[in-house]
Write a structure and sequence with these properties.
Layout lengths: L8 E8 L3 H12 L4 E5 L5 H5 L32 H14 L4 E3 L3 E6 L6 E5 L2 E10 L6 E2 L12 E4 L13 E5 L3 H12 L4 E4 L3 E2 L4 E2 L2 E2 H7 L16 E2 L12 H6 L3 E3 L2 E5 L2 E4 L3 H26 L17 H4 L4 E3 L5 E6 L3 E2 L5 E2 L11 E2 L2 E2 L4 E3 L13 H17 L1
């Protein structure tokens, strides 16, 4: 008996990913009358649902971390939306723009069409052929966990994407590796839950949460920082230590140490139960302080140039005394002796485009593109860090990148 394969579904533009990037792309394509389909392997905004810890809130205020076409309902514009409120926001937005989204459809492979121009996506629900494809899968694809500490130690190791709350961890001390927004907030939560906490601090930006009555996202906007086109040399992997938790506050590593967290440098090697750290803690703290002071200085210059009447903020310029764990940092730690039973790797993500069988990547698997337009006609990237500027992976930034790509697609 001959089994006939089902004919491929056809669409003009296929958007892969139903998060903030996919929805932004859909809105702009609809405005231009471009037929399209979004497919999402799980649910709308799935990363916010299942790859974030329970108490997570946005790192920017609600007036800022949104699309232009909808505000957050039921919360103060200066407050920080919870992850559930963010999910509700994107679900409501999809309804508002009548996004043609199909959830529960996973793309197994994407390749150029054998019949001619365009692409063919093999999915869990059949084949889809499209003239254009937008890869809107975002920057948080594959959790990155360095293979420093072997599993044979018996210490539970998990990425921040798998962390939910302190109760899921074994009794005992916790080592958090990574001092960006995720690592700092998780370490703080664990400390408040009564845990003994060690925090490995690498290079980072440490902006003021607010200065002279304005949130730091406002300052980065008026100072032109969100529009920076390229990351500064040797700063590609620098994280931002900022928090919207507890109403939003400036991250202060000295305060964390004063409250009981032991700060250490970057984890380097592990041998015979002992984790060795680089002697870089003081330098990393100092560089974060320098970045912080640079924002204050730039803000003061802006106020003077524009003649703005914004209140002075002398407290922002005062730093506590360095605690002993900074002035005399640990260079090694016997994990068993320290009672460490869990390690949380807040070490970011790497891209995973192994399912894309199209020659649009360099030798390291990184997308080759200009502002999201790949070298393969009809293939686009959206939502990646530094796609066109510093703001690209953020909610408001991806919306503007999507507008540019929609114009490019419509012009084809």
């Amino acid at each position: 008996m001959t089994v006939r394969s089902m004919p491929a579904e056809k669409t003009e533009t296929l958007i892969i990913g139903g998060g903030q990037a996919g929805l932004a792309m859909s809105e702009h394509l609809s405005k231009r009358g471009v037929a399209h389909l979004i497919i999402e392997r799980h649910r709308i905004a799935e990363r916010w649902r299942s790859a974030r810890w329970d108490s997570l809130v946005a790192n920017g205020p609600a007036w800022h971390d949104r699309f232009p076409g909808m505000t957050f309902s039921g919360i103060d514009p200066d407050s920080f939306a919870t992850k559930d409120q963010i999910v509700d926001y994107f679900v409501a937005y999809a309804h508002q723009i009548a996004a043609p989204i199909r959830c529960g459809v996973e793309v197994k492979s994407l390749q150029t069409s054998p019949q001619g121009p365009g692409f063919r996506a093999e999915t869990s629900h059949g084949c889809i052929e499209a003239t254009n494809v937008v890869l809107a899968t975002g920057p948080f694809q594959l959790p990155l966990v360095p293979s420093v500490i072997p599993a044979a130690t018996g210490i539970a190791q998990l990425h921040s994407a798998a962390y939910r709350n302190p109760s899921q961890l074994r009794e005992g001390a916790v080592l958090v590796i990574g001092a960006g927004s995720s690592g700092v907030q998780i370490a703080d939560e664990l400390l408040r839950a009564g845990r003994r906490v060690y925090l490995s601090v690498g290079p980072h930006n440490r902006p003021p949460r607010r200065y002279r009555g304005r949130d730091f996202v406002w300052w980065l906007g008026v100072l032109g920082e969100w529009d920076a086109k390229a990351v500064a040399p040797n700063r590609e992997h620098i994280t931002i230590a900022v928090s919207g938790a507890k109403g939003g506050h400036t991250v202060d590593f000295r305060d964390l140490a004063a409250r009981g967290i032991t700060l250490v440098g970057r984890a380097e090697t592990f041998k015979d139960g002992v984790l060795h750290f680089l002697p870089d803690l003081q330098g990393n703290i100092a560089q974060g302080d320098a970045d912080y002071r640079a924002v204050l200085a730039a803000a003061d210059d802006y106020v003077a140039q524009k003649g703005l009447e914004l209140p002075e903020d002398p407290e922002a310029h005062r730093f506590p005394v360095d605690p002993e764990c900074i002035t005399d940092p640990l260079t090694q730690l016997n994990l068993a002796d320290a009672g460490i039973t869990s390690i949380i790797w807040a070490t970011g993500y790497t891209l995973d485009f192994g399912w894309v069988k199209v020659s649009a990547f360099d030798g390291k698997g990184r997308p080759v593109h200009q502002r999201g337009v790949s070298e393969v006609p009809g293939l686009y990237f959206l939502g990646l860090s530094w796609l066109s500027r510093r703001a690209s992976p953020f909610i408001w930034g991806v919306w503007h990148d999507a507008e540019y790509l929609a114009g490019h697609i419509a012009a084809r």
